[in-house]
């Protein structure tokens, strides 16, 4: 997802210009509704920008990695599609997102992107050959200024990275909620378009999906394991802390049902 933010300190050719921002997330279908999920603290940041009338021109970015890395943007309004969060600090729940309207869902289905259904969600303690996090780190987002008669327009290039992970069975020394899963990075991110910083940073990938991958004679199968919530450094290694999908799904379903009832009341008024 990407949007623009009014920033008094951001200027292009001496003129005020909006600052592009982006967030990582995943699209799933639950309770006969399409939901875009990310981390709760990401949604809270967007809400603060909306409260101060700073954020505008929201769109889902459908990235086609099978062709020329082209982007399809599907616009939406958070005023018509309310944002929600489901959070609990002690338990480690940090989930947020929004429910897609039928028009937005149909527009996304015209591209290569598809939602994940319940059968593609990993079971508790299911074993995989490999894990990976997918998202848009800040280093893979670039802004290009194109001159215009009024001064210039900022165009954003949103890049994505697929980073292999190893699951840690023991809880890291850094204090984290017990119900979260923990992973360490394995090697370099799989991207050839951007130079990753050293030491590597996953800033901007909060809310990105964690995939469990299993190889077989037909190729491979992928399951959604969780949503990246936070990170820490353990003995100079970067460790990701993840909300497991099966655990938070009940909370998300309850929040969605509440939104559904609220929307019905608004429509009936």
Topology (SSEs and partners):
Blueprint: E1 2-5, E2 11-12, E3 15-16, E4 19-22, E5 26-30, E6 33-39, H1 40-51, E7 55-64, E8 70-76, E9 83-88, E10 93-99, H2 102-109, E11 130-135, E12 141-146, E13 153-158, E14 161-168, E15 181-185, E16 209-216, E17 219-234, E18 237-244, H3 245-268
Antiparallel strand pairs: 1-4, 1-7, 2-3, 5-6, 6-10, 7-8, 9-10, 11-14, 11-16, 12-13, 14-15, 15-18, 16-17, 17-18
Commentary on this structure:
The protein is of the alpha+beta class. The protein has one domain. The protein has three helices and 18 strands. It has helices at residues 40-51, 102-109, 245-268, and strands at 2-5, 11-12, 15-16, 19-22, 26-30, 33-39, 55-64, 70-76, 83-88, 93-99, 130-135, 141-146, 153-158, 161-168, 181-185, 209-216, 219-234, 237-244. A six-stranded antiparallel beta barrel has the order 11-14-15-18-17-16. A four-stranded antiparallel beta sheet has the order 4-1-7-8. Strand 5 (26-30) and strand 6 (33-39) form a beta hairpin. The two termini are 31 Å apart. The relative contact order is 0.19. The model has no long low-confidence stretch (mean pLDDT 76).
Q: What keywords describe this structure?
A:
six-stranded antiparallel β-barrel; 3 helices; globular; single chain; four-stranded antiparallel β-sheet; 269 residues; 18 strands; alpha+beta
Short description:
The chain has 269 residues and is of the alpha+beta class. It is built from three helices and 18 strands.
Strand content: 35-45%
> What is the strand tally?
18
Spatial sequence of strands, sheet with the most strands: 11-14-15-18-17-16
Which value, in Å, is the CA radius of gyration? 19 Å
**Major sheet summary line:** 6 strands, antiparallel, barrel
How far apart the termini lie comes to 31 Å
Give the overall form.
globular
Which parts are unreliable, with pLDDT below 50 for 5 consecutive residues or more?
none
Task: Round the mean pLDDT to the nearest integer and report it.
Answer: 76
